[in-house]
Amino acid sequence: MAIRVYLLFLLFLSSAIVTYSLYEDQAGLMDWHQRYIGKVKHAVFHTQKTGRKRVIVSTEENVVASLDLRLGEIFWRHVLGTKDAIDGVDIALGKYVITLSSEGSTLRAWNLPDGQMVWETSLHSAQQSKSLLSVPVNLKVDKDYPILVFGGGYLHAVSAIDGEVLWKKDFTAEGFEVQRVLQPPGSRIIYVLGFVNSAEAVVYQIDSKTGEVVSQKSMEFPGGFSGGISSVSSDKVVVLDSTRSILVTIIFLDGGISFQKTRISDLVEDSGNAEILSPLLTNMLAVKVNKRTIFVRVDGEGKLEVVDSLSDETAMSDSLPVADDQEAFASIHHEGSKIHLMVKLVNDLDTVLLKESIQMDQHRGRVHKVFVNNYIRTDRSNGFRALIVMEDHSLLLLQQGAIVWSREEGLASVTDVTTAELPVEKDGVSVSKVEHTLVDWLKGHVLKLKGSLLLASPEDVAAIQEMRLKSSGRSKLTRDHNGFRKLIIALTRAGKLFALHTGDGRIVWSMLLNSPSKSEACERPSGISLYQWQVPHHHAMDENPSVLVVGRCGSDSSAPGVLSFVDVYTGKEISSSDIGHSVVQVLPLPFTDETEQRLHLIADTNGHVHLYPKTSEALSIFEREFQNVYWYTVEADDGIIRGHAMKSSCSGETADKYCFTTRELWTVVFPSESEKIISTLTRKPNEVVHTQAKVNTDQDLLYKYVSKNLLFVATVSPKGAGEISSVTPEESALVVYLIDTITGRILHRLSHQGCQGPVHAVFSENWVVYHYFNLRAHKYEVTVVEIYDQSRAENKNVWKLILGKHNLTAPISSYSRPEVFTKSQSYFFAQSVKTIAVTSTAKGITSKQLLIGTIGDQILALDKRFVDPRRTLNPSQAEKEEGIIPLTDSLPIIPQSYITHSLKVEGLRGIITAPAKLESTTHVFAYGVDLFYTRLAPSKTYDSLTDDFSYALLLITIVALVAAIYITWVLSEKKELSEKWR
Amino acid sequence: MAPILRSTSFLAFLVFQTSLFLFASTLPISSGSEDSYTITGRVRIPASTAIGHAAKFSNIKVVLNGGQYITFLRPDGYFTFHKVPAGTHLIEVYALGYFFSPVRVDVSARHRGKVQATLTETRRSLTELVLEPLRAEQYYEMREPFNVMSIVKSPMGLMVGFMVLVMFVMPKMMENIDPEEMNRAREEMSSQGVPSLSSLLPARR
């Protein structure tokens, strides 16, 4: 009977749909979340008033944020759309943050304390042009001083109070490019300076109240202008002429224009091409000539005079007013491992207001930007704080010769992620004692029991939380038994490599990529991708694992590549090399050499492939497998997919014996007038499939077609390649293909009429799930395609399996043309999707969950059983027992199965899963502007007790049972005795 | 009041009661661009569903066509998409703690930007573009309050319960059985060699 009860109970457990769910007090136990903003473009300080000091920043990730100036924490933050790049940010009226975005066509005001949007104005724009934002400094609420916005060929005056457009002025006339909009303080006249065809300077004077043109002056400049411009005061600008060798001061005082030309060669000797630098300095400009920065003072008549010169690696801030009508600016230069911050007066460069030296981490690179702010010290002198943006995108606040806080903003632009093991715990390394005595242990568990029975007081709850965090030992730097502790290696756009600990998300080490040759052309290579180079486990246990970082010198795909090998344990670069050829594609091969280094092929633009590592051992391994190496290339623009194989060593052309030529095996050409490739996808090469067969309810066997050479391709009609809803259902069709990449055979083709992309897909085992937009229903749809091997389908019983045609011993060849059949089913899905991933476990036994990154920046875990083509409207009893869910037209969104629970991974771009050692568990790492990590157990932790397991209850049960046995024994003894007496 | 108005130039337009936007121009518009319209709507979160989290408008995003444009809410809950071409569009509202149905919005070119809105989840059409959450979302499991049943239902509770059953009910059942039949059954069992409770616990005898 007990067995029956248990069976019933187990049946109940297994038939219940396992959803990922958390109790509120479990949040943050297995997961961590880090909030970032990205590389800062503009910063505006807000420190005038007493109270919270903050800095408003806008970043390259389209984030506008308010940071606490004391601690660097985020007060509030908004991530704008991907096409909504921020052009300018400022503070108006002392209470609104004004942002100009989308090439000067959207102006928004945000409430300074809490970030609530106050108003939003769409500005008229007709053409592409510079976007300029000018916010008056005075705090008066006055319509005489509107916000001036230039963008899209129009000058708008916008009221700061409600965003009302007061007037607008058209500057879309032919060839006219507005360069500067200036408003002298206290004046009602606005100067608009622009060039016509880069050869004529035009100055408009506009009444700021009405928008009427008061006067217009123009003057021809014979040489023509180049782009560089710097406004030095309210009536003067300095521009470079088209030869970049003459500085032209344009003075437009009182409606007149005059030019003043100065040759740069007169200012400095042996001058080359000059470049005007961006800092805004009063009556001064900074020019970069011959790798030196020179400061040029502009006097009242527009005469230029060199006052100082600095080395090239100097970053400068704009000037800011300090006491007594003086202006100061900050400059930072490097010297060894230190940076020197100097604040000088603009009028008198010899007066150094502040000079500080700060030790700086080498792996932050150079200083890119400086923003400076002053405050009045208690002794009434000026103090300065500087916000600096480093080459690795990190943001630091310097004050009083120290780094007050720093933010690793490079992590907001992660481009590639891999995982790595931590070192094994060695003998002699002391393990921190988790539980001290039995009494403490028991106390802890009684507390936990109270917590799970909701009897705990708030103090108890806090104690439980603290105990959980402490006892888990989750942030140790050694490998653990379950494989929960790992390193996440992340490559960022700035070319920096970070190792994050899965336990608490802290940065274990970080490393900025260096160019091996230190050449001029390639000072800092940009990182492209990350591969596991060496994962020692069998032969080379004492080797440290390492990763391969493939980089490139420059943004062009034909630029020469750079390889860097980084030790995962220490974060040190083992070696790096200029490989001398371009990098188009990197193919990790399934072979490793004696020291467990994985062989990689790198394809270049000339159609050659290069083998790495360049050792004779690797070469001999590769030559053995020479005929078995295939790969494919996708030319999405032309709609062609090509398959390639090895041909010969390219010894005829070069002496490099690690270089090979290739031959084309097959091509699949999609008709360009009706199909455009929008998405291609293969299985993860390291995915583990537990079983090839699937047992149906009617004891039927289905063989999964598990091939690593399957490519999923999605194409849409060229018209439907744009945003959703841009076409009618008749105009667009979505076609998906499954292509064998060895033979080029199309195994399956499925057409969805009236549908369009974007397609987000995930490929695992023998199935593909993809998400697209159905124009007819005007809803998103998700389709699952499962592919099965027909040729092995007759292996129904043991004898056929052993002796049949496709028996177990028959070799499986990639060239064979197996008969396959597919099953598919479609469902509606109620949200836009940014990315889809699938959980992966060590042995592939655990059922899978889809991880759907929604446009709301949350991640939904959806059981694979919801996207099973065998779902029917009325499943039979047998099917129900197997766990088949009745068919519904849309996929459920269960709030408890958001793995991000009440958090958002702002700007979500990708989700990475990696198996833990424990079969039930998988690591999930999501990156975007934010980072999020959690551990998932798609079928619950069936192979270990959860943290929640109440040992105390177990103990009490055992004690109660023992007591009961003893009591009954005593009772029965007594009874027997009395019976015997009778 | 039609929530959508034509926003080409020459036209001053008016957006709802509180904010009056004057967008007048005396300039010729750039030719070649098709007519574009403005979609204005409102997000309303009923106070009754706002359990736990206060309805914070500052963290709500409104998304047009799966990310083509993203906008935010003004303090009064209104949002606006500018420069939207005529045709069919999809508006989604993302607010932590709430689930909003995507809205299909048809902007008519013939009727000067008149809008028709339909919730795609429930197929309910809206007379004005006021978006309300379909349901509030609770991201955490609720801890069940302490009750005896939860202990009894747990595996350990079942174990104890079964033991209690065996200990107290079984002897009672044994009593009711005829002693002769009992003996016969016992003999049968011992002859079959099935280990019985009595053979396991010889000390009690």
Automatic annotation (TrEMBL), chain A:
The EMC1 first beta-propeller domain, residue ranges: 22-409
Regions that span the bilayer: 949-972
Keyword field contains Transmembrane helix: yes
InterPro entries on file: Beta-prop_EMC1_1st, EMC1, EMC1_C, PQQ_b-propeller_rpt, Quinoprotein_ADH-like_sf, WD40/YVTN_repeat-like_dom_sf
Family annotation (Pfam families): Beta-prop_EMC1_N, EMC1_C
GO cellular component: EMC complex
Subunit structure: Component of the ER membrane protein complex (EMC).
Descriptive protein name: ER membrane protein complex subunit 1
Organism listed in the record: Arabis nemorensis
From TrEMBL, chain B:
Polar residues compositional bias, start-end: 190-199
InterPro entries: Beta_sandwich_EMC7, Carb-bd-like_fold, EMC7
Compartments in which it is found: Membrane
Principal location listed in the UniProt entry: membrane
Gene3D superfamilies named in the record: Carboxypeptidase-like, regulatory domain (2.60.40.1120)
Any single Gene Ontology cellular-component annotation: EMC complex
Membrane topology reported for the UniProt record: Single-pass membrane protein
Claim: Transport is one of the keywords in the record: no
Transmembrane annotation, as ranges: 156-174
GO molecular function, one term: carbohydrate binding
Signal peptide: 1-26
Source organism, top-level taxon: Eukaryota
Annotated stretches, region: Disordered: 183-205
PANTHER family found in the cross-reference section: ER MEMBRANE PROTEIN COMPLEX SUBUNIT 7
Similarity field: Belongs to the EMC7 family.
Protein name: ER membrane protein complex subunit 7 beta-sandwich domain-containing protein
